[in-house]
Amino acid sequence: MALYKTYSKKGNTCKVTFELPVEASMGVKKIALVGDFNNWDKNANILSKNKDGLYAVTVSLEQGHEYQFRYLMDDSRWENDWAADKYLPSSFGNVDNSVVIV
User: Fold this and answer.
1) Helix, strand or coil for residue 28?
2) What is the pLDDT of residue 53?
3) pTM for the whole thing?
């Protein structure tokens, strides 16, 4: 898993690419990026599979914030990002959420 950040020259947004390697997505047909930046909407940011088998999606986020997120695989399994900037306890159950800082 990887997070790639590209900051705008104006300093107000950052394009973040969320990428999952093949071994993290074996047998998975659909991966959604859900987080507080999209109101935890499982249909807002669906990752696309490229020719190398990597799933990725890019979103623009406002700089100066921390955003919690997780991946929802096949509408049934939640996963954190191994490359997250940090982790915070979720308010739902005994799990952590991944955090990206921009």
Assistant:
1) coil
2) 83
3) 0.90
